[in-house]
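Chapter summary example.
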Amino acid sequence: MKSFNVDDSIWARIERWEPYVTLRLIVINAVVFLASSAAQPGRQDTPVFDRFGMDYLSVVMQNQHYRMFTAMFLHDGWMHIFNNMLFLALLGYMVERPLGRARFLLAYFGAGYLGFVFALVWQYDPQVAAVSQRGLALLARPTVGASGAVLGMLGVWLAYERSLRVSLSQMWHSPNGQRVMVFTGYYVIASLVGINPRVSHSAHLGGIVGGFLLGFFLFSMGYRGRTLPRQGWMALAAYLALAVGGLVYAYQRAPGFNLL
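The structure predicted for these 260 residues follows.
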């Protein structure tokens, strides 16, 4: 049996691959950023953010769930979009080929969606915010960015390696595997302890979790004889439980509002 090499599976095979979807996502994000900047020179928070950003009041209290997707294409400044697109180029180049274009898009948006669900659950406390005008304003402050979706590709990469029975030790001892795993570890820790309070670490963590669960499901369905379909369905069930359960929890916390 041919031995498996982590670097060969990821890097050597993709040098000739054009990351079709990744490049187009970067272009779309750049165009949206330039257009939103032109609409309000010098400010990124209005009016586009107010209309398409993700915030508790709009999503939960007004049922504008489309914001969970439109917010993925909005960025708060040049450094915000530069960092996100830089990592999207790197991570998308790693996982688009083994995952496939359609599945890559599904994993990308699915990871970003779960990231925003985590943000709703962890960042907003409507019971506390409702007691003051300042607190109410915090519920309406939009969260934007592709970070959750981009970091979801880290989760997809980990799922890809696990679906091929690559151990954590094998991943760790490969140069590229070390970079990816250290990067993943940093964002998980940052999400839990809130290293930078201005960054939505909960959305980052949700994106990584969503990317791993969806990636494991998608890879388990695509490689006969080398994957675990039952575990794949379990991963999908876990993703749906987190996504639906998180939204239900967010609705239940809203004062004076019911799910139905």
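To summarize the output: Residues 6-253 form a domain with the Rhomboid-like fold fold (CATH 1.20.1540.10).
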